[in-house]
């Protein structure tokens, strides 16, 4: 097995604190996106629907994310990227809470539409932030770490969420993701400083 290592110059390590908080954001949104995979049967059973219909929890956000990503970039213009990212993480918190409390498959799918917006928006914004946060020679490693949240979600977030759903119920799994997303939001508000975003309002 080939291992991949990312070397970060010692002088740049402090600049990587906000990079890691953005990685937490990509972890949160991808885990939220894929969480229903391991919970599908339990959700379908409790909400009285077929597994095929419940599968829309995966396909619907994915399709909408592909549409929303360029729309977010177009609409963003010169708006402070920190504010956009914070807004999307706030929506992700609400979407996870709505999923945890949904009394019907219709309302659960409505919450997943919001997840689609968050996926497209966070992917579009997160990928452009590394050059604003680290020196030029560290842009590559920073970008790798930001999108490393995706791999971490696949190998850690989704299995842990599925295990939690098996032992505590699928609603608890979505509630836990709401809590993690809120933590990622708080970290980003703390770590992303205005000086890295010229023209941003403090």
From TrEMBL:
Gene Ontology molecular function: transmembrane transporter activity
Every Major facilitator superfamily (MFS) profile domain range: 17-202
Membrane spanning stretches: 20-44, 56-77, 84-103, 109-130, 142-161, 173-192
Keywords: Cell membrane, Membrane, Transmembrane, Transmembrane helix
Compartmental location: Cell membrane
Membrane topology: Multi-pass membrane protein
Membrane in keyword set: yes
GO cellular component, one term: plasma membrane
Record protein name field: MFS transporter
